[in-house]
Specification:
The complex is a heterodimer of chains A (about 260) and B (about 220).
Chain A lengths: L3 E10 L2 E11 L4 E6 L5 H8 L7 E6 L2 E5 L8 H8 L2 E4 L11 H13 L5 H22 L15 H13 L5 E5 L7 H16 L4 E4 L3 H7 L2 E6 L2 E6 L1 H6 L4 H10 L1
Parallel strand pairs in A: 3-8, 3-9, 6-7, 7-8
Antiparallel strand pairs in A: 1-2, 1-4, 4-5, 9-10
Helix pairs in contact in A: 3-4, 3-5, 4-5, 5-6
Chain B lengths: L1 H36 L4 H16 L2 H14 L10 H29 L3 H9 L4 H31 L11 H10 L4 H27 L6
Classes of the chains: A alpha/beta (about 260), B mainly alpha (about 220).
Bound molecules: adenosine-5'-triphosphate (ATP) and magnesium ion.
Chain lengths: ~260, ~220
């Protein structure tokens, strides 16, 4: 069964139609890259999946559970949104680390707050917090920041900040991790370290949706690629097919332009 | 001489009380007003903004008089107890309302300049609105508002002497008793009290700024 199923997702801002019916599904462990020109709706798609925007139409199912159905108001209650968001993680283009916290604190803050809702929190508080702390450290080690645990965001380079942001998203163990152009705010020579961290996650079979302008990266990290155009999926397939023999003229033109 | 100094201290105690009470109530009230002015419910936001505009657009001295004398002159039962305590209470209410409006504008400025991404990062990490405000936004807001808040608080120190318009026996009013007797010294020396107080506030604000210097916003 697919871990994520998106059906006919639509989004408009007032009169502006941004998503015009997006449907796709994702198997566990798959890495899906989303490419497309500026304004084609890639960010909006990720924001809808993370419930930062409310879609105007369509459905979102995760692991068989219907998280959103535009036709069913009971799936749109504000109260449930917070839980639903936890199925997804989102790494922003601009990192959005919390400046007043160290790298480690950035990673552990949300798990600590979430742990308060556990039934055994009162009895086992010390143990639970220690586990979260340890988990946070190990996540930062995984992204190569073992020596930066106690650095504040302003003391880190962009690439390091983005890797903290990745560790922070992983700390909540999302089913699907989304990236919105994780390297476009970075110098090319720094992008590599972030891409390597993402590649390592792919090797560990993390399910991911990656919006990116790095065609080379999309080509070798993803199991499937979606080309978006005008709020629709214009072409979809394995990377070799999409990049090797693009069918639509729009995709051909797009690939020409970014080359 | 010693009597004069004692009397002036007595007066300055009123200034300090008014200062402390105003801060104590106007800071939280200001935060609430700032939320009101940023409300998505437009009628509320406009109502609050109009109120803030009126309070900031009229002299504090006028507000003091209206709040102290208004109820009685408009035929309502006078809410203020007789005597010095009643006058101080009236002054406190006027100051709290006035300063809460100024503070609310500072809070609003501080909150609105926090990038939207901070809030969204909290949201996607499953935090509640409350948690985002207290754990993510608040300290960043505080860091941003320390300098303008410092200015406002220094103004408040000096504004407390306006309370003499409703006969609160604050320090300058005390000193005027002596000018009536032909002594100017006490009046001059009141300045020293204010200077010392403002100096302490300035040091405290500098300390807060340094304390928050460990991160950048
Ligand atoms: N909150 C909003 N209100 C109005 N229009 C919006 C809003 N958010 C996005 N849009 C519009 O939706 C369209 C798609 O935006 P989106 O950010 O999803 O594109 P994108 O594919 O991510 O582009 P880019 O590659 O530049 O990041 C744009 O035309 C944008 O102006
Ligand atoms: Mg985008």
């Amino acid at each position: 069964m697919a871990i994520l199923e998106v059906r006919d997702l639509k989004k408009h801002f007032g009169p502006v139609n941004v998503l015009n019916g997006i449907s796709f599904s994702l198997e566990k462990g798959e890495v899906l890259s989303v490419i497309g020109s500026s304004g084609s709706g890639k960010t909006t798609l990720l924001r809808c999946l993370n419930f930062l925007e409310t879609p105007s139409g369509g459905q979102i199912h995760v692991k068989g559970e219907c998280l959103f159905d535009a036709a069913d108001p009971s799936t749109q209650k504000e109260a449930g949104v917070r839980k639903k968001r936890l199925h997804f993680g989102l790494v922003f283009q601009s990192f959005n680390l919390f400046p007043q916290y160290t790298a480690l604190q950035n990673v552990t803050l949300a798990p600590q707050l979430l742990a308060r809702e556990r039934e055994d929190y009162r009895q086992d508080r010390a143990r639970i917090l220690a586990e979260i702390q340890e988990e946070g450290q190990s996540l930062l080690e995984q992204v190569g920041l073992a020596d930066k645990l106690h650095s504040y965001p302003h003391q880190l380079s962009g690439g390091q900040q983005q890797r903290v942001a990745i560790a922070r998203a992983l700390a909540l163990k999302p089913d699907i991790l989304c990236f919105d152009e994780p390297t476009s705010a970075l110098d090319p020579e720094i992008s590599g370290e972030v891409l390597r961290a993402i590649r390592r996650l792919a090797e560990q079979h993390m399910t991911m949706i990656i919006v990116t302008h790095e065609m080379g990266f999309a080509r070798d990290v993803s199991s499937r690629v979606i080309f978006m155009d005008g709020g629709l999926i214009a072409e979809e397939g394995p990377p070799e097919a999409l990049f090797g023999s693009p069918k639509s003229q729009r995709l051909q033109a797009f690939l020409q332009a970014v080359r | 001489m010693a009597v004069i100094i004692e009397r002036l201290f007595e007066g300055f105690a009123i200034n300090c009380k008014l200062f402390g009470l105003t801060l104590l109530f106007a800071l939280p009230l200001g935060l609430i007003i700032s939320f009101g002015s940023m409300s998505k419910f437009k009628p509320l936001a406009y109502a609050v903004k109009t109120f803030v505009w009126i309070i900031r657009g009229t002299p504090l001295m006028l507000q003091l008089l209206i709040i102290f004398l208004g109820p009685g002159l408009m035929g309502m039962t006078n809410p203020w107890p007789a005597g010095a305590d009643g006058r101080l209470a009236a002054a406190t209410v006027a100051f709290v309302i006035n300063y809460a409006c100024y503070f609310s504008e500072i809070f609003r400025g501080g909150i609105e300049t926090i990038p939207k991404g901070q809030h969204e990062a909290g949201q996607v990490l499953g935090m509640t609105k409350r948690q985002i405000f207290f754990k993510v936004t608040l300290l960043q807001v505080i860091k941003r508002i320390v300098p303008p808040m410092g200015n406002e608080i220094i103004t408040l120190v000096k504004d407390t002497s306006l309370a003499r318009i409703i006969s609160c026996k604050e320090i300058i009013m005390m000193a005027q008793e002596y000018t009536a007797k032909g002594l100017i010294g006490p009046l001059f020396s009141t300045g020293l009290y204010f200077l010392a107080f403002v100096g302490a506030v300035t040091l405290l604000m500098g300390y807060a700024e340094r304390k928050l210097d460990y991160f950048r916003v």
